[in-house]
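Quick one, C-alpha cells below. Sequence please?
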C-alpha cells in the first residue's frame, strides 16, 4: 500500500474518514475504511461491483448511518447527519442511476439544485454555465426530464449538483451505461468543474481506465476494505492494477502504459 503523497503545505484535507464501518442490515458493507480527499483534488475509489464504493458515498452524504468511525468535512464531524444538513454544508451527491425528477422540467431540476442558495444573481450565472457546458439541455429546458436520454440525464444530474454550489461533489459511476463519446464529454466537464470552478471531487468508478485518467489520487477497494492507494502515476505503474483493472497482461504493453502515463496523464 502506498502512502498518501504530500501535495504541498497549502493543501488540506477537505474530507477525512477514519475507521468507518457501515452495515446493510446484518451485513458489514464497509470494514474500517480510512481515506482523505485533499481540497481542490479529484480522488477516485475503484473496485468491482459489491466492493463497497457506493456505500461509502451514501455514508458520507448521510443516506446511510455509519456503525462506527469518524467522517469530517473541513474538520467538522458530519457522520450520522441528515442528508439535507450535509448538503447545506457543501456536499453534492450525484447518485448512481442519475435519479433526476422525471416529471419535472429540465429547468426545474436544475433550479432545485439551487434551492438553498440566496445569491440569486449568481444562481442565474451558474444556470447559464451549465447550459453552456451541456447544450443538449437547452433544447429540452422546458420539457420533462423523462424525455432525456441516459447521457442527457447524466448531464442534468451533474448540472443539478453544480447548481448547489458545492465544495465537494460525490460522483457515483458517472460513466455507467454511456457510450465512449459521451463518457469523454462528461469527464471533460468533470475536470473543468474541478480545475476552473474549484470543486473538489470524490469519484466512484468501475471503469478504472477512465478513473485513472481523471484522478489525482486513487483508492482500490475489495469486499469493503481499501487494499491499495496511491497517486495516479503509482497506480498506473502497479502490475496488479494493470492486469486486474486495466486488462493488461503483456509486459511490453505494461511498459507502454507506464510511459504514456508519465508523458500525457500528469
Amino acid at each position: 500500500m502506498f502512502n498518501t503523497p504530500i501535495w504541498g503545505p497549502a493543501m488540506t484535507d477537505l474530507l477525512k474518514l477514519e475507521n468507518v464501518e457501515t452495515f446493510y442490515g446484518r451485513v458489514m458493507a464497509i470494514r474500517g475504511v480510512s481515506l482523505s480527499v485533499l481540497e481542490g483534488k479529484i480522488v477516485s475509489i475503484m473496485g468491482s461491483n459489491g466492493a463497497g464504493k457506493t456505500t461509502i458515498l451514501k455514508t458520507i452524504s448521510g443516506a446511510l448511518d455509519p456503525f462506527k468511525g469518524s467522517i469530517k468535512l473541513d474538520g467538522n464531524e458530519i457522520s450520522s447527519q441528515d442528508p439535507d444538513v450535509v448538503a447545506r454544508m457543501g456536499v453534492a451527491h450525484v447518485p448512481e442511476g442519475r435519479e433526476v425528477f422525471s416529471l419535472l422540467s429540465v429547468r426545474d431540476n436544475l433550479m432545485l439544485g439551487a434551492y438553498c442558495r440566496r445569491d440569486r444573481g449568481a444562481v442565474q450565472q451558474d444556470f447559464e454555465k451549465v447550459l453552456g457546458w451541456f447544450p443538449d439541455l437547452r433544447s429540452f429546458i422546458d420539457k420533462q426530464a423523462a424525455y432525456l436520454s441516459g447521457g442527457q440525464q447524466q448531464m442534468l444530474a451533474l448540472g443539478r449538483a453544480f447548481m448547489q454550489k458545492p465544495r465537494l461533489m460525490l460522483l457515483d459511476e458517472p460513466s455507467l451505461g454511456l457510450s465512449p463519446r459521451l463518457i469523454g464529454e462528461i469527464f471533460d466537464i468533470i475536470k473543468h468543474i474541478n480545475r476552473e470552478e474549484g470543486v473538489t471531487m470524490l469519484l466512484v468508478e468501475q471503469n478504472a481506465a477512465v478513473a485513472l485518467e481523471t484522478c489525482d489520487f486513487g483508492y482500490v477497494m475489495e469486499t469493503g476494505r481499501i487494499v491499495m492507494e496511491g497517486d495516479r502515476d503509482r497506480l498506473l505503474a502497479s502490475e496488479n492494477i494493470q492486469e486486474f483493472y486495466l486488462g493488461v497482461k503483456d509486459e511490453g504493453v505494461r511498459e507502454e502504459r507506464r510511459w504514456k502515463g508519465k508523458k500525457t496523464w500528469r
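The chain has one domain: 13-264. The radius of gyration is 18 Å.
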